[in-house]
Amino acid sequence: MPSVPITFLLNTIHGFFALIYFGSVLVFGVFGPKLSKLSESSLYDILTQIMPPLMSFVEASGMITVVFGAAEFTFYMIEYYKDGGISAIENVIFSTGWGESVFIGAILGIIGFSMGLYIAHNFEKLFKLAKSLDPSVVDEIKITENKIKLFSLIGTLFLTLSVILMILAVSFLPLPSA
Amino acid sequence: MAKSMLDIYNSVYEKFSRYQYTPALATAELASLITLYVAGMAIAIYRLPLSGPLMATHIYAAALAVIFAIGIYASATTANSHTLRVLAVLDILSVLTGAFEGLFYFGGFTIPDYALGMGTGFVFTVVFTSAILFYSIKNPDTSRYNITLIASIVEAILLSGAFVAGTNVLLNVVQFPLKAAWEAALLSIHISLGVLSGLGGVLLFALSYLSDRKDIFRLSLLTIIFIGIAAAGGLAYYHAYDYAPSYIMAVSLLIAIINSVGVVVYSS
Questions:
Q1: Which is it for the CA torsion A119, A125, A126, A128, positive or negative?
Q2: Model ipTM?
Q3: How far is B42 from chain A (nearest CA, A)?
């Protein structure tokens, strides 16, 4: 183990921003649909004033989670690689409990995060539609809102599974020895 | 004209909250980049072991720089500015290149190539972050000024080239006097680019003096001052092989790069 404090750092940052991201996704997924109960004018204010900076904050914390998670994964894998080459990495990922849950959790997490990006894209579309005062866009707004609802639900599901697998790996399964 | 503290605070707040707080994030990223550079260069120049407080500073500042770069990306993409969006993507790509090369280097593959990749990613990150910072705080109505624009682009390229060549020398040449031809070639590239950037800096300063533009003139002045300090440090180093002037050279080269990028952005 090198004396550089990378593992600790990567762990903390990955965990910290994962908390923020997962928490906000849950809030959006569970309470997002309630937004449509608001009156037209307050919904307009929320969509144009509050949501854009909030979206970019949430998106950034998700991205930080992915980047630092990838870095952490690479860091662990370098150690196994130095010990036994590619076959050691394959062995760790596909035949130990720790490797399997981290790997599957990572894939599920990335799928959930990509859905988050898709939702953010749809939100941006919604902001643009909300700003245009043309009454003919009402149908389109409905479609976009339904898309957001559906994908938030699926994305939340994927992320929840990912979080469960990650917690399982880190807290209960032993780290395979190199 | 006495300005109250509140006025100063308000004008700074107004500047730094533009484009969804991109300038504030860029300043924070630049600060952590400078911190990481000061610590990392101390380790490389004084040949310290890869542990201890300097190493911790380097790693933590690097992590912060990555976080801020991602933050810049997120706010610049929602800020409805095409230029900022492109710059933010380039910035995030270079910071990730530097960070992952560093991860390989500190994670166990301790060979100079990875450290050099880290340095190259770093210099691109500095260039793009300063471009983002200066672009987002400059007055959008400033007119284009082609003469200093070209001179400063050349200058920024020369300075970055001198930086990369110098890092290469630092990491690959183990001791002076030189023994091999490739070592001499590397050092010559570094010195030639350094001398050229000195000439380019003087040219840029002269052009900006003639330009009637205060912002460009001030940044060019800073550029040439720090190139001067870097050159003096370099000469002192190759005279006595003492590490301290070399450290001064490295740090002032970085500040000169930041200012020359500022001139590029302010004249475009």
A1: positive
A2: 0.79
A3: 16
